[in-house]
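Form 7-S
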Amino acid sequence: MKVIFLITFPPAYHFSSSTVPAHRWKNNKGRMLGIWREDWGHILAEEVKKSYPEIAFEVWRPDYRAEKEYVHVFNDGVVHRSFPARRKITFYGLKLKWFYNSPDIIKALGKYIYPNGDYQNTICHIPVDYSFLGHSILKKYGKKLTFIHTSHLNPAILLSRANTKNPCKWLHRQLIWRRYDRYLSNIQYLALSSDRIDFFNTVTPDCRIYTFNYLWFDLSWSRNKINNEKARDLLGLPTGIKVLLSSSRIVPEKQLDKLIGSLSKLRNSNYICLISGTGEEKYINYLQSLVNSLNLADKIVFTGYLDETLFLYYCAADLFVSTSLSEGGPVSVLKALALGVPVMATDTGIAAYILKKYRVGKVLDSQNSEEWSRIIDQFLAGNEIKSLDPVVFASEYDSKNAIEKLVDAYQDSIERFIEQQGKS
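Output:
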């Protein structure tokens, strides 16, 4: 069996300027392009190869810095292919929007399609997303190759309707809704965590759904946790105060400006908030100026991008905070859960589902920053925010069990696809 995992968006080079990719090249203009194995496709590929070394696993992605196809084979046999990509402007509702497209990827997939390609042994794994490329591929080859989709987004976001009396805004949202409705109706096979089933049973009634609980990061990361005091000592953090931690890409969708605003309204000042990550320079500068204008420079610290030391910050944290508008996981919250750190997070992604399922943490309204202030104030005053037992978390999301279920789904969906072609 051959699995092609398609990452439908280019590398975010401007978010990763301080990191070194696992492998890199220089293009014909001397610019660096590379592979980050932290991307979900690569993490999944590594896990699959550990248990099923006989499976040929490739990760494909568009790259706007690539002028040709770049290929690298890692030691575990995972093949990465970076294809040329170009920006394409198209209507998104009533507005024009830039997307990335890759005719080279679409052409390369052609050799695997029914009836003359190697469709009997190949499956293409694509996340459900907003991308122009993913939609284009499914529209062109959806009936000619086995495609299995996974979704870690809050699915209601894909088909959310506008609650507005403005006719232009209503029509704009309605057109977007119809686009995603057509896209979802073409999906034949889905591998999902259990919290997504009801929604997708409604919007994709003819789709075969496989369930598996997999968060796509290595739980061994959490098995060497050190105690809070030792972590603070190693990082030089003060004792006797509460440490709040937020870790993400620093972009407007994460609503860090609203988080800073909510911290400025706290009655209790016995805390320090650490914000890790890198992102848009303009937004980072804005956040720093906001901190200064609110006289919070002694309370809010931007750590920049953290590699191995991020683990220590999690161990030192008393509360992990995520205020994002939209997430698939997010992995940052899942890591906190794996370490037993109390969490408050907005109602998006699989993390919110886990918080609700186990009745731990605090699930936030993404639009109500006043609520954030109230919950943090209560926490600083001594009100407990319950954490999830790391043992329970690990038993529920053990990667080995999940990988077995996913590979079974790969094989079953290929067999069903071949059977359908025989009947057609």
